[in-house]
Design goal:
Radius of gyration of chain B: 28 Å
CATH topology of the largest domain in chain A: Arc Repressor Mutant, subunit A
Shape of chain B: elongated
CATH class of the largest domain in chain B: Mainly Alpha
Protein name (chain B): Vacuolar-sorting protein SNF8
Oligomer: heterodimer
Order of helices and strands of chain A: HEEEHEEHEHHEE
CATH superfamily of the largest domain in chain A: "Winged helix" DNA-binding domain. Chain C. Domain 1
Strand order of the largest sheet of chain A: 1-5-4
InterPro entries (chain B): ESCRT-2_cplx_Snf8, Snf8/Vps36, WH-like_DNA-bd_sf, WH_DNA-bd_sf
Strand content of chain A: 5-15%
Main location (chain B): cytoplasm
Distance between the termini of chain A: 56 Å
Number of strands of chain B: 5
CATH superfamily of the largest domain in chain B: Winged helix-like DNA-binding domain superfamily/Winged helix DNA-binding domain
Strand content of chain B: 5-15%
Keywords (chain B): Cytoplasm, Endosome, Membrane, Protein transport, Transport
Structural class of chain B: mainly alpha
Helix content of chain A: 25-40%
Organism (chain B): Rhamnusium bicolor
CATH architecture of the largest domain in chain B: Orthogonal Bundle
Shape of chain A: elongated
Strand order of the largest sheet of chain B: 3-5-4
Number of domains of chain A: 2
Largest interface: A-B, 20 and 22 residues
Number of strands of chain A: 8
Chain lengths: 185, 242
């Protein structure tokens, strides 16, 4: 994992932050701080997937300066907390691999739909590659989004009938619909 | 000398004693009256002095401290009442205002320090929160102590920290905080044995209490032994803006 320019909160250099606290009140403060740190870190580093078994490779869970690591099962319990707010999902049964959504899937889908609407790209088919790797979207936050996550985001939009996802062998794309809001005057 | 005897003598003696008593009372009353007069004059003078130097008192922390000391040495507490004639001095207001601001800072930082804050950090935060004018900036630690002592909800017994959560902290806890402050904000059972010659049980009991109070965090990743950290004494926490 490459080192990133991230502004660590004070807790990151506080050694007991890496030990799950016995006092419930303190622990709740600790977990809250971890949740926000994980999301900030993933946003800054554009990390969509965390494999807990390789967690020590992330500076996030391993502060080598103070020689403190966050334990495997503690990470899982914090990620499970993030799951409750729609900010993470385990993608295997052993809960080792986790997708992280610093924006929830719903937030992502409205971001993408807004981008499409602003460019008047409804009713055309866009390939998934174009959407997140294309030159047009380099300044967008969803640029570089992992395909698995992207498909989940688009599926959410699809449920709102705002697009149709096409996943054929020869084309992997999406067609956005023009949604007309009818105002009753 | 021939001793006088008889009823007459006894009565005479009694009469003399009564006269002495009367004279005594008279003198006492005279003294009391004089004292009252003096005190009255003194009060007037002090009041005059205070209102004359009111601005100085509000502005200058050193002057404020000296005034407080002067009042204390003559058994007067200008903060004690908002009603009495001392209220006209407006000294109390200064401290009440400060006390309210202290509470605000304590509440705002409670989340990270568990309700314990060092006077230095408290002072820095207060100065940031108060107005930019010089008068608002000049707050001494002495002022903070006086204001905090006015708030009965605060624990007492510390001369360098303010505790804003309910619960008693004993001398042992105070000693632990002092040691932790010397040691970059953390402490261990062995450290306390070495420095204070405490048995394990004594240290353990006090440390467990502080963990239960949310004042201390435990660190299990030190290879030698369990460490106890105090966010309120940990530099990075004290200096962090949130």
């Amino acid at each position: 994992m490459s080192e990133v320019d991230i502004e660590w909160p004070w807790q990151y250099s506080f050694p007991p932050f890496f030990t799950l606290q016995p006092n419930p009140e303190t622990r709740s403060k600790q977990v809250t701080a971890w949740k926000s740190l994980i999301l900030t870190y993933c946003q800054k580093t554009k990390t969509y997937l965390i494999d807990v078994r390789e967690a020590t490779q992330f500076a996030l869970f391993n502060n080598s300066t103070i020689n403190r690591k966050l334990e495997h099962n503690v990470i899982i319990s914090i990620l499970s907390e993030l799951q409750k707010t729609g900010n993470a999902t385990p993608i295997d049964k052993g809960k080792n691999r986790w997708e992280i959504y610093w924006h929830t899937l719903e937030e992502w889908s409205s971001l993408i739909y807004e981008y499409i609407s602003n460019r008047g790209m409804q009713n055309t088919v866009v390939t998934l590659y174009e959407l997140v790797q294309g030159e047009d979207s380099t300044n967008e936050e969803f640029n570089g989004m992992q395909q698995d996550v992207l498909i989940k985001v688009l599926r959410a939009l699809e449920r709102e009938r705002k697009c149709e996802v096409i996943l054929d062998d020869d084309i992997q794309g999406v067609k956005f619909f023009l949604t007309v809001s009818i105002l009753c005057v | 000398m021939r001793r006088r005897t008889g009823l007459g003598a006894i009565q005479k003696q009694k009469l003399e004693q009564e006269k002495y008593k009367d004279k005594g009372n008279e003198i006492q009353e005279g003294q009391f009256e004089q004292m009252t007069k003096q005190l009255e004059i003194f009060k007037v003078n002090l009041e005059e002095f205070a209102s004359k130097h009111k601005n100085e008192i509000r502005k200058n922390p050193e002057f404020r401290r000296q005034f407080q000391e002067m009042c204390a040495s003559i058994g007067v507490d200008p903060l004690s009442s908002g009603k009495g004639f001392w209220s006209v001095l407006g000294i109390g207001d200064f401290y009440y205002e400060l006390a309210v601001q202290i509470v605000e800072v304590c509440l705002a930082t409670n989340d990270k320090n568990g309700g314990l804050i060092g006077l230095d950090e408290l002072r820095t935060r207060l100065i940031n929160a108060r107005g930019q004018s010089k008068q608002h900036q000049e707050i001494s630690k002495d002022d903070l102590m006086r204001a905090a002592q006015k708030l009965k909800i605060f624990g007492s017994g510390f001369n360098y920290m303010v505790q804003s959560v309910p619960g008693e902290l004993s001398m042992d806890h105070s000693a632990i905080l002092q040691q932790a402050e010397k040691n970059q904000g953390f402490i261990s059972v062995c450290y306390l044995r070495r420095e204070l010659n405490w048995e394990t049980e004594r240290s353990q009991k006090a440390l467990d209490h502080m963990v239960n109070q949310g004042l201390s965090w435990v660190d299990l990743q030190n290879p030698q032994e369990k460490l106890y950290y105090f966010p309120s004494l940990f530099t990075a926490c004290v200096n962090s803006s949130n």
